[in-house]
TrEMBL record:
Homodimer. Pathway: Amino-acid biosynthesis; L-lysine biosynthesis via DAP pathway; L-lysine from DL-2,6-diaminopimelate: step 1/1. Pyridoxal 5'-phosphate binds at residues 241, 275-278, 375. This is Diaminopimelate decarboxylase. It comes from Halococcus morrhuae DSM 1307. The gene is lysA. Substrate binds at residues 278, 314, 318, 347, 375. The modification N6-(pyridoxal phosphate)lysine is found at residue 64. One of its GO terms (biological process) is lysine biosynthetic process via diaminopimelate. InterPro entries: Ala_racemase/Decarboxylase_C (IPR009006), DAP_deCOOHase_LysA (IPR002986), De-COase2_C (IPR022643), De-COase2_CS (IPR022657), De-COase2_N (IPR022644), De-COase2_pyr-phos_BS (IPR022653), Orn/DAP/Arg_de-COase (IPR000183), PLP-binding_barrel (IPR029066). The keyword ATP-binding does not apply.
Amino acid sequence: MTGAAVTTANPPVRRLADWSADRLREFADEHGTPLYVVDIERVRENAARLRESFPDAAIDYAVKANARTPVLAAIAEVGFGAECASAGEVVRACEAGFADVRYTAVNPPARDLDRVVECADEHEITITVGALDTLDALAERDWSGEIYVRVNPGVGAGHHEKVRTGADPKFGIPIDRAAAAVRDADERGFAVEGLHAHAGSGILETEDLAAHRALVERMSDLADEIAAANIDLDTVSVGGGFGVPYRDTEAPLDVDTLARATREAFSADARLGIEPGRYLVADAGVLLAEVTTVKPTPETTVVGVDAGMTTLARPALYDAFHEIRSLVATVEGRETVAATVAGPVCESGDVLGRDRELPAPERGDFLAVGNAGAYGYEMASTYNSRPRPAIVALDGDGGELCVRRETIADLGRLER
Ligand SMILES: Cc1ncc(COP(=O)(O)O)c(C=O)c1O
Ligand SMILES: N[C@@H](CCCC[NH3+])C(=O)O
């Protein structure tokens, strides 16, 4: 295979080193930086591997991880549903061709509910309710579609405390009150199709896998209690959160083992549901940046680049680690330096990586940041009036601009 294509058929992880530096450099030259590159074929490979491990499960893609149209269209095409966090995601998922779309309503703004209810006139939409208040809001809108009840399982997992939703009271109905909530919804005439819970994001470590298993067991017990009340549940979704290795030294998640453990723990008389985001898209994307400044200091070599916390928020927000690689054609004659790769934003937290061994960077070099396909562009902002980057989508040998670079003129377009 050539270019950015992988060398083994559908390996469980694509490392930053597996991308073709020549091809990435060409994209950076052609489209400028900062630039996201997303490989749609890799998204399909990840989807196929997940489907193989979970052959009977209802799989809903968590759109928040990457909501760009080519990504959505590819995942819709393989037949997964969509799990959406807002009316915006619902609309985009419907437009991209998803047949089953579920809105996970977290403190839903009235505007979102109105729009989702409107969408349901033409699309198959389910709403996941995480508070009794939301049932009232749906009743006010004469909602006659299906609902899921979101449960707070009391067990969280994930790569950072900010993403361990499972034990956070913000999310879902406490598990000891959930059966009563389902009975209440049923008596009020709502079509309760499913239960939902989500432990958190970035499950990779043994303790997170144990938390996932505990969640599945708790949800199965709850489903039994609900079945005993003669309420038939179609699906019990145990959420997403399947992690990917961000460091070279981390092993990939063995989804077969995860699927087996999930199956063993799942005893509900209903279809198992999962809703992965990151797992499908993270290693399908890289972020390209250009070196703008090289500054030796007593502590470190500061390598200034044109991408920062407004382009990729994860390092600043969660201290997340992303591999960084130089794309120079030859490292000959360059010694290795320990670099702090920093962005152009006026905050000390605007650092993409510290202590990174790189062939001494020079102004004009391109760097690639790995695993940028999930929660990358989606969390980009225009802080410091910095326009958002462009995105190139690859499919096979071709690469096309799928999102143009925002301009300074764009920044004022909403002002009156
Ligand atoms: C309700 C819900 N479902 C699914 C996901 C997807 O998570 P991940 O991208 O880690 O698979 C999230 C995000 O953590 C979520 O909040
Ligand atoms: N945005 C987070 C994932 C959280 C997903 C939302 N529940 C991340 O980049 O790791």
